[in-house]
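Hi C.,

You asked whether I'd gotten around to modeling the 318-residue construct. I have! Everything is below, sequence then structure, no commentary in between.
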Amino acid sequence: MSAKIFIDGEVGTTGLQIRERLSGRSDIEFLRLGEDKRKDRDARAKMLNEADIAILCLPDAASIEAVTLIENDTTRVIDASSAHRVSEGWVYGFAEMTPDQREKIANAKRVTNPGCYPQGYIALMRPLVEAGFIPANFPASVNAISGYSGGGKAMIADYEATQNGLQTPYWPYGLTLAHKHVPEMKTYAGLDHAPIFQPAVGHYAQGMIDAVPVNLWALNKKLHLQDLHDCLSQRYQNESFVKVAPLQAASKLDAITPEYLNGTNSMHLHIHGNDESGQALLLAVYDNLGKGASGAAIQNMNIMLGLDETTSLPVAPL
């Protein structure tokens, strides 16, 4: 029997990507509204209550409202907005985060899809914190760059316009250090303090890199790059999507570019740095519209339906 899926907000960037990635699936029945009904509250409520899983691809306020329209105890929800990322009663939809996270997602009624930037940061930091390599009070920082597609329709229009002053190769933002992703970065990395998070948009459509610098000399125990690599490799050794690249000395690598994993649901983690100076640079490369958005939503949907979680999701080899 096919699972009934309703994408509330299917004409947005994430919704369109989910539809495209799920096209041709015989195990899914899409519930859809005509264009004239997409903003009709009653019509949306009907679809939400008929769905086995509702995927919310909406602004935060609209996602909060959508959840209130569900009047049964059978419709399960995947919320792709940031409205419920650290809310009680919601399961964080990063299946690789902890050994038991996948089971929590499988049994959840309410799953909050992770933000694009936080996933790479959490994938890098949480295992090191849990291993005791990085203390919970560590003053973390993360620099990241994403394709302009992550900014929604307005930013996409700005960057793709033929005459626009925002067409710059590198545009830092979040300068007040109060980006909406910071709470989930702090919460799910297991740190006592919010990291200094400095995101930027590049003049390309999609793909991203999170970069986390760590002064190893400032930690409570003496660590080397190999120690960090071993910890992350052990944590993700059986994962399909999150992989740790071999430890190698290099000033630059073709695989460390924002667009390297576009079109896949993969995330590749890299450890670089200098043991002599006691400095490390942790890097996560992935697609902000794949593992960072629609891919993660589909992975969560597959897990919730008890299906092979790689279905409809390409995996990139290291």
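If it helps when you're writing up: The CA atoms of residues 15 and 115 lie 15 Å apart.

Thanks,
B.
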